[in-house]
Amino acid sequence: MNFPKGQSRYSTTAKTNKEPIIFGDRGMTLEQEINESNNYYRNHQLGVIYKKPTPIQIVKVDYPKRSRAVIKEAYFRQASTTDYNGVYRGYYIDFEAKETRHKTSIPLSNFHEHQITHLQQCLDQKGICFVIIKFVTLQRYFVLPASDLINFWQRAKQGGKKSMSLQFITNKAIEIHAGYNPILPYLTACEQLIQGDK
Amino acid sequence: MNFPKGQSRYSTTAKTNKEPIIFGDRGMTLEQEINESNNYYRNHQLGVIYKKPTPIQIVKVDYPKRSRAVIKEAYFRQASTTDYNGVYRGYYIDFEAKETRHKTSIPLSNFHEHQITHLQQCLDQKGICFVIIKFVTLQRYFVLPASDLINFWQRAKQGGKKSMSLQFITNKAIEIHAGYNPILPYLTACEQLIQGDK
Asked: Site annotated as Transition state stabilizer: where (chains A, B) (predicted)?
């Protein structure tokens, strides 16, 4: 893929992101890295991908005079999908992101049944589905096709391993390397999935 | 499209929707009708489309012992996208839904700049983008291609009409008719958009 020359990461971010700007990658969460990458992709017309808002059950709202509504009682709800979706070159993109501090594996307990179900449903509709896994202490990032995660999940339910080893992941996933424009070039891995390289 | 024979709308709904079940279409909001249709499409493997949660800025959360977290202060945030997206037969689907009690037109004030921008960005990525418009008093529903809405919006900014007439909509949109399985068969209109009939 050719990425058009653009502004530096920070000025690009400042225009669109209302979150505080974090200078330097160290200490950024995977979510922040993906959000910044999505800003970059959107600003450069390379893809339109967003994190979905956290679902909230609102119980009580106050409407004070002359100021905006305040939610006074609400609860977190269980999401029914993955966290990220969008469109890239006509393809539907859907993924979940997980980070782990383990060094040699990622336990399946990081994933939830509803995420597996949702990924399978999207695969059935010919979506491009995967998970981005960050090994925090190793500073390594992988794009693992949803089909491999789902297969592993099904085997685990029948008594198989409950944790995906780093070796399994290096075999099945596409490794991506953190950079600047974007921080996480995961659409390059997407393109490989689309071309059927993996 | 062929819809497989399924369970009645109500039993289908009861399995997946935690909202109270509303018997009878009269009085259902457009949002409820679309959500029920999305449940139907998902349960019949015809498409995976969800309404996105409302974005909330959380300020204060209490964690009472032995019970779940309670959000005690939060604010509604401006959404940056449309309300609905998902995947259908490999296509990325993105749309907004609006209802009006007007009988002969729908004012552009129902739409927001960020929705127009988002629809254009998704069109640029070859998404299937549209708005579903419900004329409540007429009980008529239309699937209007995003490109027609965007063109109208641009003309309005240059001094053109500020309201889309029913005649404009009947010319440009695909009319859909409320039924039972699903309540709003809007993917049939999507299919027409994909085939380029409209």
From this structure: 98
